[in-house]
Amino acid sequence: MKNENRKHLYTLTECAVLIALAAALSLIKLWKMPLGGSVTPLSMLPICLISVMFGLRWGLGSAFVYAIIQLMFDLPEAMGWGLTPAIWVGMILFDYLVAFTVLGLAGIFRRKKELGALLGTCLAMFLRFVSHVISGTIFFDIWMPENWSSPFLYAISYNGLFMLPELIMTGVTLFFLLKISAVKNLVFEQNGLPFTKVNKS
Question: What stretches in the chain show pLDDT beneath 50?
């Protein structure tokens, strides 16, 4: 029982550290869109790693906490946009609660080792993109430029401008990180997933 409690505390602490790291990285904007969305230096990677390391339960829980943090970060700016109550509800749901919580699904293929981590992370980020597109199509079409005729295509284009670079940078970084033995051991030797062999002398 003591070992179980110690393991739980260790997992909780590590998740808290990774959430804090993700939040700090999200404050660094390499590229910022006018109506929300930005390219950051790998801010989603720590959240995805939680899910890969500890499973979907920890991943989704941590991602939901991260979603609330992101909402708190962006709330002051959004309050100046003159949004209607309906748009507020849609934005909070699809641009924050759903969009960031789905990052916790990155560990869905975690038992497939490195390939599973990469596929799961890319899938989770794609689902975040889909959530933003839904929001843009339904709630933010009023800001669509006149030279665009389709809110759906505009939402894909707008959100793709920041989500595609994020996905590429995160995927490439994760690929090379998992080539490092120490990182690979740390990521995969969690919660009963000993994917690396230990040499015995």
Answer: 192, 194-201
Closest CA to 58 of 196, 197, 193: 193
Please check whether residue 47 is in contact with residue 65, taking contact to mean a CB–CB distance below 8 angstroms: no
Q: Phi, psi (5° rounding) for residue 32? A: -125, 130
To the question of domain 2-188 being in CATH 1.20.58.480, the answer is: no
pLDDT at 31: 92
DSSP H helices in 79-178: 85-90, 98-101, 113-138, 151-177
pLDDT of residue 193: 53
User: What are the φ/ψ torsions at residue 38 (nearest 5 degrees)?
Assistant: -160, 160
What secondary structure, in 3-state letters, does 6-28 show? Answer: HHHHHHHHHHHHHHHHHHHHHCC
* Residue of 89, 97, 37, 45 whose CA lies nearest to 71: 97
> How far is 192 from 170, CA to CA, in rounded Å?
26
> Which residues make beta-bridge pairs with 31?
39
Amino acid at 19: I
Give domain limits for the chain: 2-188
Q: How many CB atoms within 10 Å of residue 7?
A: 12
